[in-house]
Protein: S-adenosyl-L-methionine-dependent methyltransferase
Amino acid sequence: QDGEMPTGSEHGDDGASTSSSESLVSLRSEEFPTYFGEHYGRLFHSHGNSPSAHYYILPVDGHELHRYNATHTLLRRVTGVTCDAPIAEALADAQERRRTVVDLCTGTGLWPMELARAFPYAAIRALDRVPIATRYPAPNVRFELADVVAAPLRFADASVDVVHARNTHMTPAAYARLLSEAARVLRPGGLFIAGEWGEYPAL
Structure:
């Protein structure tokens, strides 16, 4: 597993200026155990002082990761596509700038990895509070540690082409805040994609 977390300057290395004075540095291997705690034989996110401690209640161990990946695969088989949205239009290749995608609460990172293969020219940034994504991402994917509950997204206003948020209903303290942040960072005409499980998948 590999991850990144905010610390210091004005621009991320994807060229999008941040909304604060933060940049990214790699999370060291010895730091990973501090993000987890064992309870009743299952591994959970330790949360620390994060407000998300009150909202994300599922384990983050191998059994849960297999379940998460299985639901992703099931949804893809039901819809027949990686993303049931006009994402090709939003990410149409252009010379003037690189297209940017932000995946909120990325989990194991399957969605951004699949998207990266379809759109190799897009910069894909996958955010989550828990470092459980692959340590070998595609060249155009970067996994970042970020608490979408406790802090604003690091991206500048009107700097992102697509924001994707799936299986987030147990994470954000207030979904309205997540929507507000998505609207802030999206460029005019940008695309917001939401997907949640209820009695049936709602996209």
